[in-house]
Amino acid sequence: AWGAGALAYLYRQLGAATRAGSKGLCGCLTLLQAWIYEYFPLFRPSQLPQSPDAPRASSWISPCLPGGDEARQRLARYRQLLDELSADDVTWTPYGRDGHTDIPRSLYTGPIRFSDIAEGYDPSLCLRQFGYRQIIPRAMTVPHDQYRPASGSSYIVFWDPWVNQLWDNVAARRLDLDFASRPCKQPSEIVEEYVDWFLTRSHPRITHPTDGEPQPRPQLVHQVSYDFLLLFQI
Question: InterPro entries in the record, alphabetically (predicted)?
């Protein structure tokens, strides 16, 4: 399964890129870039019309951007945009509300593998991409053990042998959306307790507190446009 393999490898590299000693990112970055364009209109470049059968990623026209000081200024601007992002700035269902019916395996929950790499995947982390109200996700299948050195970007994760069979048993490992949640009335709908759960597991800001003027922490209010409610699950 090349799609799952590319995703598992990209997940592992995204984890490695967060390590203090990392200075680059490997993996299928075209996939990551296209995902950003699909979900976040603020960062989209120009797009070409194309036939429905053409790869979606091929429609985006990536601009040639200069480096140096201008690149650093653009990075600071992107960070500011992310910190100011609201739920209305996100396209929650870029592939339609019923995309999971065409690709049932998109609701698979469990580890996905590439060679000796296995990374956890759970669609309940972002139910809004399926047109359902976001709930607090279930506990994920976790590795048996892991080794993460104090410095450097590499790490090793050990899974129990039985997880190798999960990918081949999609029927038993498929998330039941109607049992887990209910369809959204508004694309960004969440349960009230989700905000508190989310903020205990995520950095509320991307910009470092020492960069520029300190900014007030966003106030997240249920059934109002939520300031900075962003969960990255591909």
Answer: AminoTfrase-like_pln_mobile (IPR019557), MAIN-like (IPR044824)
pTM equals 0.78
Question: Treating both helix axes as pointing N-terminal to C-terminal, what angle do 29-39 and 2-17 enclose, rounded to 10 degrees?
Answer: 90
Long-range contacts of the stretch 104-108 (C-beta < 8 A, 24+): 104/170, 104/174, 105/170, 105/174, 107/174, 107/175, 107/177, 108/167, 108/170, 108/173, 108/174, 108/175
Give residue 210's pLDDT: 66
Q: How far apart are CA 189 and CA 135, in angstroms?
A: 9
Q: Which residue has the tokens 């960004």?
A: 188
Rounded-to-integer distance, Cα 195 and Cα 3, Å: 32
43-58 per-position pLDDT tens digit = 988 888 888 888 888 8
Longest dimension (CA), the chain: 52
Bin 139: left if φ > 0, else alpha if -120 < ψ < 50, else beta. beta
Residue 130 in contact with residue 124, Cβ under 8 Å? no
CB atoms within 10 A of CB 228: 21
Residue 182 CB partners (closer than 8 Å, separation 6+)? 132, 133
Query: CA-CA distance, 95 to 226, in Å (whole number)?
Result: 23
190 phi and psi, to 5 degrees?
-140, 165
